[in-house]
Amino acid sequence: MFLDSLLEAMRARFVGFDEFTRAMAISLVTKRNLIAFGPGGHAKSEGADHCLYLVSPNPADCLVQSCGEGMTEERLYGGVDLKALEEEHVLQFNTDQSFLKARWVVFEEMLDMPDVAALSLRDTLTARQLRNGRQTVSMDTEAIFALTNREPKEKAGLDPSYRALLERFPLQLRISWGSYQPNDYVRLFDKVFARSNQKQLERGALLAELEEVRRIYAETSVDSARETLAMLLSKPGEKGQPISPRTAIYASEIVRATAALRGSTVVEPEDLADLIYLPDIAMIDEIWQELRRARAVVETERQVRLLDDELTKLLDDLQNSDTPEATARAISGLEALESKLATLDMHGVIAKRRYDRLKGKLEKS
To answer: Across residues 272-279, what is the average pLDDT?
Structure first.
């Protein structure tokens, strides 16, 4: 499935990117925009670029735009159309050179964008087209990954116009490591220094898998979890911070996408855990904590299941090996699996039981 393939590819290059990878996968499936924020130096840009590389056979599908303090409305939309200005005396833009015609877009430092450009971008994202007087241009972009070192919540609090813009980016998450212990840096060094020896997936290698998940997503309904979802969405209102109808629709899309990423057209309670990416829900602390716990349990159980399948295959390979080289490869694989198992954080009773059974099988081998 698409999510497993994407996680495997991202884990080969980055440390602590599982949540980021999952959020990007949901963004690609739902075609909703995403903001990844947090301290610099955590490879947000490289991670977003590599994710889009894996689903983009054509380099022209992707556009990276710097949106710092020097951003203007003209730059945002591809520059001024000089021919129209000289011949017709009208201010129009070269939109073919802008993000409007790219399938996927990365906006670097979007929260540093001046207000004039931000307000124009908000209108364009809402209408799904540029509305510049008589010049109207449809927006072909499926999803935007906005990257920034600034906190969206703080920016929205200082500037109401930015709050309206940020509402067009329903998926938001903070990028940082869970810990900064020696082992974390060792993992970083291992991944960076191993890149030159790794087999690189071809550009667009995961597009077919993404399209299959999108097909499942289109057939997925929230009917099975409708009441539960509605109850959860009503909780912030009890705190005086009601969820808007727009955000409620985003929530339904997220849980449908999560089900589709599992290969299912039926939404299960576990799929609600990914609502943690919705800031309007996550800002209610008790809900955020509950979603974090649920998210950790679901992810741990998924990883244990994958490791169990990997162990079964390695044991079969070991049993059927007919050369010293094949035996050595199987043993090396078992040793690597044991290292993976040691890095898992246990969350939930079911996951702990599965972990114990898996560890027992590995020790017997």
So the answer is: 87
| pLDDT(350) > 60 | no
DSSP helix/strand/coil, 107: strand
Handedness of CA 358, 359, 364, 365 (dihedral sign): positive
Alpha-carbon distance 352 to 365, whole Å?
Answer: 20
pLDDT of residue 356: 56
Spatial distance between the Cα atoms of 335 and 318, rounded to a whole number of angstroms: 13
In this predicted structure, the answer to whether residue 322 has a pLDDT above a threshold of 90 is no
In 3D space, the residue among 224, 214, 282 whose CA is nearest the CA of residue 3 turns out to be 214
Task: Report the DSSP pairing between strands 135-138 and 143-148.
Answer: unpaired
In the chain, the amino acid numbered 134 is R
Helix ranges, 201-284 (H): 207-218, 226-238, 245-261, 279-282
Give the distance, in angstroms, between the CA of residue 93 and the centroid of all CA atoms in the same chain: 31
Task: State pLDDT tens for residues 161-188.
Answer: 678 888 899 999 999 998 899 988 988 9
DSSP secondary structure, 137-188, as one string: EE----EEEEEESS-HHHHHHH-HHHHHHHTT--EEEE---S---HHHHHHH
**Of 271, 287, 270, 290, which is closest to residue 279 (Cα–Cα)?**
287
> Across-strand partners of 130?
137
Give the chain's radius of gyration (CA, Å).
23
Give 63-94 pLDDT, tens digit per residue. Answer: 999 998 889 999 999 999 888 888 888 889 99
Cβ neighbours, 10 Å, residue 61: 19
The DSSP secondary-structure symbol of 67 reads -
Residue type, 287: I
Specify the DSSP element, H or E, that contains 40.
none
**Contact yes or no for 154/139 (Cβ under 8 A):** no
Least confident of 61-70, 117-126, 216-225, 276-285: 276-285
Amino acid at the residue 299:
E
Say if residues 10 and 4 touch (Cβ distance below 8 Å).
no
Which candidate, 176, 187, 191, 34, places its Cα nearest to that of 105? 34
What pLDDT is attached to residue 237? Answer: 80
